[in-house]
Design goal:
Length: 261
C-alpha cells in the first residue's frame, strides 16, 4: 500500500534532474511539500512550476562547497520550513585512471558524495526522528559493493554512503524514521554526461523512473530494508562478486572497464 506523504515536507538534494527530479514528482503526487536543492536555479523553478498542488521551495546551493550542511540548515530555517523527510541524492562520479584524475575534481567528488551528505544528514536527522512517518534516503550505488577500477573514488564514496546509511538504519529502529540506502546500477540519467561514456562498463541502463518506483515501494513496507539494490541482474552481479572473492572480482571489473573506456 502506497504511503501517504500529505503531512510531510521532503528535502531533496540534486533535485534539478535525474532521480532527484523524479523523486520530487512522485512525492508531490503523494501530497508531500518539497524543498528542492541544486545549483541550477532555472531547472529548479521549472520543476516547481510542474507541481502546483503542493508547496515547493527551491534553494539554489552548491553542495560541493565547504560547510554545506550548516548552510542548508540555515537556509531552511530562514524560510520557516520544518523538514520531515530527506533524500540525499546529490553526487557525481569521475571515470578515468586515478593517477590521471584532476586533484580538485577528486576533492569536489569526495566533498559532495561523502562530506556534504554526512553533514546534511546530521543537520536534519534529529528533527526527522522527532516527526512520525519520515524518511531518510541516501542514494548510494552498486559500485559501493565492490572496488571500481577507473571509478575508484566514486566507488569508494558510495561504499561509505552504504555503510553509513545502514548504520543509521540500525540506530533509528523504533523511532518511526524509515532509513534506507538506495543502490542503483547503471541508470538513464545525466550521471554519464558528467562521468563520461564507458562509466557504465557497457551494462544495460535501467530507466530512472523504475529505480524511483522500486525505492518508494521498498519504503512503503512496514519495515524497509537497510539498503536496496535495484534490479534482479544487479543483485545477481553483486552476489556473484561476493562468491568469486575480491581479487577475482576486481580483476574482472578492471578488464571490463578497459574494454569500454
Amino acid at each position: 500500500m502506497a504511503v501517504d506523504y500529505r503531512n510531510q515536507t521532503t528535502l531533496i538534494t540534486g533535485a534539478s534532474s535525474g532521480l532527484g527530479a523524479l523523486f520530487a514528482r512522485r512525492l508531490a503526487a503523494r501530497g508531500s511539500d518539497l524543498v528542492l536543492v541544486a545549483r541550477r536555479t532555472g531547472r529548479l523553478e521549472s520543476l516547481a512550476a510542474e507541481l502546483p498542488n503542493v508547496t515547493v521551495t527551491p534553494i539554489t546551493m552548491d553542495l560541493a562547497a565547504p560547510g554545506a550542511g550548516a548552510k542548508l540548515s540555515a537556509a531552511v530555517a530562514e524560510r520557516g520550513l520544518e523538514v520531515t523527510s530527506l533524500i540525499n541524492n546529490a553526487g557525481f562520479g569521475t571515470h578515468q585512471l586515478f593517477h590521471e584524475a584532476d586533484p580538485q575534481r577528486i576533492t569536489d567528488e569526495i566533498t559532495l558524495n561523502v562530506t556534504s551528505l554526512t553533514e546534511i544528514s546530521r543537520a536534519f536527522i534529529e528533527r526527522l526522528r522527532a516527526q512520525p512517518g519520515g524518511v531518510l534516503l541516501n542514494v548510494a550505488s552498486i559500485a559501493g559493493y565492490q572496488p571500481g577500477p577507473t571509478l575508484a573514488v566514486y566507488a569508494a564514496t558510495k561504499a561509505y554512503v552504504l555503510s553509513f546509511t545502514e548504520a543509521l538504519w540500525s540506530e533509528s529502529r523504533g523511532t518511526g524514521l524509515r532509513v534506507m540506502a538506495l543502490s542503483p546500477g547503471a541508470t538513464e540519467t545525466e550521471f554519464f554526461d558528467v562521468a563520461g561514456q564507458g562509466a557504465d562498463g557497457g551494462t544495460r541502463r535501467m530507466h530512472a523512473d523504475r529505480v524511483v518506483d522500486l525505492a518508494l515501494r521498498a519504503l512503503d513496507r512496514r519495515n524497509p530494508p537497510p539498503s536496496l539494490i535495484t534490479g534482479r541482474m544487479n543483485s545477481l552481479m553483486i552476489n556473484a562478486g561476493r562468491l568469486a572473492g575480491r581479487r577475482v572480482t576486481t580483476a574482472a571489473l578492471g578488464a571490463m572497464m578497459r574494454r569500454t573506456g
